[in-house]
C-alpha cells in the first residue's frame, strides 16, 4: 500500500485519487441564471443530500485545478441565489456530459446539450424537462473552502419545490430505483449505472463540441436517435470533410443505388455506429445522405 501526504503531490494528482476512490457519486445537473437572466447548465458530482427537515442539498463548484478560475455556476449563484438541481439518469447521461463543456460566458448549455428548458414555478432558473426529478431551490449559503485551484465552494440549497415524473414511481407512489435508472460518476471517464454497473462516457472536448443545436434538423428530428445519441453527435469539434464523405460513398456503392430505402439504411447504419461509440463514422454516414 502506498501512503500519500496531499500537499506533497500536485493538486491534479490529489483530485484524480479522490475521484477514483470516492464513488459512485450522484450528479447534480445545476441550472442557474446570472443577474441578466442568462441561463447556465452544468453537472457536478461533488453533491449530496444533507437534510430532510428542512430539505437541504449541497453541491460544490470547485475552482478549476489547472488555472484557478471559477465556474459560471458559482458566479451565477452569487448573483442570483437560486438553483434548480436536476437529477441525472441514464437517458440523459450523454447530454449532461456535453453540458459540462466549458463554453464561453453567455452560451446556453441547454441548447448545446439539446436539453429542454422548462419554466420553474417558484424561482428564475429553468428546469431540465428530461430530468426525472427536479428540485427548485434557494441558495441559503455559499462556503468557500480555499482560494487555490481545486478548492471547493459549498453551495447550500434549500428545496422549495420538487417535481417528480410519474413514470419513475412504483405502485405505492415512491421512487422505484429500477425505473429511475440513476447514474453516478466514478474516476476519469467512468460512470456507474445503478441497475447495470459500470460504463464509460467520453468527456466533452476541451476544444468545444459543436453542440446539439448545430446538428441538422433531418438528423435531430429523426426518431431513431435518442437524446444520448444526439449528445454524442454534438461532442465533435468539426464535421467530417467532403473527402471523408466521398470515400465513404465510393466504398459503399451498394447503398447508393436507386432504392427508396437508402436513407433508412444510412440512418440505421449511423445508429449502429453510435452504439459502437464510432461517432466520426456515424457523422460521415449521415452527411452522405445528402448525396442520395
Please, could you describe this protein's structure?
It is a single chain. By secondary structure, the protein is an alpha+beta fold. The chain is 27% helix and 23% strand. It contains ten helices and twelve strands. The chain has helices at residues 11-21, 72-79, 93-99, 109-113, 177-180, 217-220, 227-233, 242-251, 262-275, 279-287, and strands at residues 28-33, 39-44, 47-52, 55-59, 82-87, 117-118, 127-128, 133-144, 153-164, 183-185, 190-193, 197-200. The strands form three sheets. The chain has a seven-stranded antiparallel beta sheet with strand order 2-1-5-8-9-4-3. The N and C termini lie far apart (61 Å).
Low-pLDDT residue intervals, each spanning 5 or more residues = none
Q: What structural category arises from helix and sheet content?
A: alpha+beta
Count the strands?
12
Percentage of residues assigned to helices: 25-40%
Shape: globular
**End-to-end distance:** 61 Å
Task: Provide mean pLDDT, rounded.
Answer: 92
How much β-strand is present in the residues?
A: 15-25%
Strands of the widest sheet, in order across it, are 2-1-5-8-9-4-3
SSE string, helices as H and strands as E: HEEEEHEHHEEEEHEEEHHHHH
Instruction: Tell me the Rg in angstroms.
Output: 21 Å
Count of helical segments? Answer: 10
Main sheet: strands, sense, barrel: 7 strands, antiparallel
Amino acid at each position: 500500500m502506498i501512503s500519500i501526504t496531499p500537499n506533497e503531490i500536485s493538486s491534479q494528482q490529489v483530485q484524480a485519487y479522490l475521484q477514483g476512490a470516492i464513488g459512485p457519486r450522484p450528479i447534480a445537473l445545476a441550472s442557474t441564471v446570472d443577474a441578466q437572466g442568462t441561463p447556465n447548465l452544468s453537472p457536478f458530482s461533488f453533491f449530496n443530500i444533507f437534510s430532510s427537515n428542512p430539505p437541504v442539498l449541497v453541491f460544490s463548484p470547485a475552482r478549476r485545478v489547472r488555472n484557478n478560475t471559477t465556474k459560471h455556476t458559482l458566479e451565477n449563484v452569487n448573483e442570483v441565489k437560486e438553483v434548480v438541481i436536476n437529477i441525472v439518469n441514464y437517458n440523459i447521461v450523454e447530454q449532461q456530459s456535453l453540458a459540462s463543456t466549458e463554453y464561453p460566458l453567455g452560451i446556453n448549455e441547454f441548447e448545446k446539450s439539446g436539453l429542454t428548458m422548462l419554466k420553474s414555478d417558484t424561482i428564475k432558473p429553468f428546469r431540465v424537462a428530461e430530468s426525472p426529478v427536479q428540485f427548485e431551490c434557494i441558495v441559503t449559503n455559499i462556503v468557500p473552502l480555499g482560494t487555490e485551484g481545486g478548492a471547493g465552494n459549498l453551495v447550500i440549497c434549500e428545496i422549495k419545490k420538487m417535481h417528480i415524473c410519474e413514470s419513475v414511481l412504483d405502485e405505492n407512489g415512491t421512487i422505484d430505483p429500477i425505473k429511475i435508472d440513476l447514474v453516478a460518476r466514478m474516476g476519469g471517464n467512468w460512470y456507474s449505472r445503478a441497475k447495470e454497473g459500470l460504463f464509460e462516457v467520453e468527456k466533452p472536448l476541451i476544444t468545444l463540441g459543436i453542440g446539439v443545436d448545430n446538428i441538422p434538423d433531418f438528423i435531430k428530428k429523426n426518431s431513431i436517435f435518442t437524446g444520448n445519441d444526439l449528445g454524442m453527435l454534438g461532442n465533435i469539434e468539426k464535421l467530417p470533410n467532403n473527402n471523408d464523405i466521398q470515400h465513404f460513398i465510393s466504398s459503399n456503392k451498394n447503398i447508393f443505388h436507386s432504392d427508396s430505402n437508402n436513407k433508412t439504411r444510412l440512418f440505421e447504419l449511423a445508429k449502429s455506429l453510435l452504439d459502437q461509440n464510432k461517432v466520426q463514422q456515424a457523422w460521415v454516414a449521415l452527411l452522405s445522405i445528402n448525396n442520395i
